Structure to design on (288 residues):
């Protein structure tokens, strides 16, 4: 059975949003359009935040300058929905505030609302936006040599993990963009350095995704007693779940699309050409 996409997700606001969608546009060298295009700067004034927003090189290693679930677990109980240039701030499926992201005054109102609700967060808080260089973990980490990325999870790897630890593990904890099913647990780890194709869109598989203490948070709560990170290490002797991809083409992907390894595709083409040249089979029929 071939691997297929079982769900697609994106996070408009880094660490504070998670939306499931049926399909998405892919932009070469960026990833899923709209994914993590917003983030909240913390402990930066407005001018510093603008510089941080526009310059990916300025972000490297500065995890303490961005609100994340690791440094601000209270955010895990909130969500954001982004549609038609409107950003809606949500708590337990109830709207708190909706803003026009193009209005500076409304962005400030959103930051103030979050500060009012969560006074433990270090001030000031500034909403940032960058479509070309979104706020992926890979845009901040100093341990990778690529900036933009797409994350892929194998559902069977998560199932294997939860069976071994005898605990229910929600897929959303890992905030994967593309979830796939129909392949063996951990088989995706063999794809590192290879090219995969989804609906004629090519992706390079860059590396495994190392996880942090954010996965200890129970979904939609600030309860971080789950201890999944140490259970990963104890069970598999690593902290990884999922793989990072970089987009090599523009295109679109959909739930139900199959995932093909480029090596497998190339072998099929080579076989087809060989058979065709020897006159034993019509090349067109081979791919019907």
């Amino acid at each position: 059975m071939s691997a297929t996409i079982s769900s697609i997700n994106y996070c408009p606001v880094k660490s504070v949003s998670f939306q499931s969608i049926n399909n998405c546009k892919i932009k070469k060298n960026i990833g899923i359009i709209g994914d993590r295009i917003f983030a909240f700067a913390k402990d930066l004034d407005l001018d510093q935040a603008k510089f941080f927003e526009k310059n990916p090189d300025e972000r490297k290693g500065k995890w303490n300058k961005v609100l994340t679930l690791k440094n601000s677990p209270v955010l895990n109980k909130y969500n954001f929905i982004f549609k038609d240039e409107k950003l809606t701030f949500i708590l337990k499926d109830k709207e708190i505030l909706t803003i026009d992201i193009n209005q500076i005054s409304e962005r400030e109102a959103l930051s103030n609302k979050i500060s009012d609700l969560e006074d433990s967060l270090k001030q000031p808080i500034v909403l940032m936006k960058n479509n070309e260089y979104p706020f992926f973990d890979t845009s901040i980490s100093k341990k990778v040599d690529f900036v933009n990325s797409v994350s892929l999870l194998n559902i069977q790897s998560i199932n294997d993990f939860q069976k071994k630890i005898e605990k229910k593990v929600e897929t959303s904890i890992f905030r994967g963009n593309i979830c796939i099913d129909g392949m063996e647990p951990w088989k995706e780890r063999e794809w590192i350095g290879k090219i995969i194709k989804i609906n004629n869109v090519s992706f390079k598989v860059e590396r495994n995704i190392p996880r942090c203490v954010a996965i200890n948070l129970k979904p939609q709560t600030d309860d971080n007693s789950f201890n999944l990170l140490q259970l990963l290490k104890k069970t598999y002797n690593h902290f990884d779940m999922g793989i990072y991809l970089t987009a090599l083409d523009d295109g679109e992907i959909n739930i139900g699309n199959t995932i093909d390894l480029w090596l497998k595709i190339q072998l099929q083409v080579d076989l087809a050409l060989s058979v065709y040249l020897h006159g034993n089979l019509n090349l067109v029929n081979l791919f019907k």
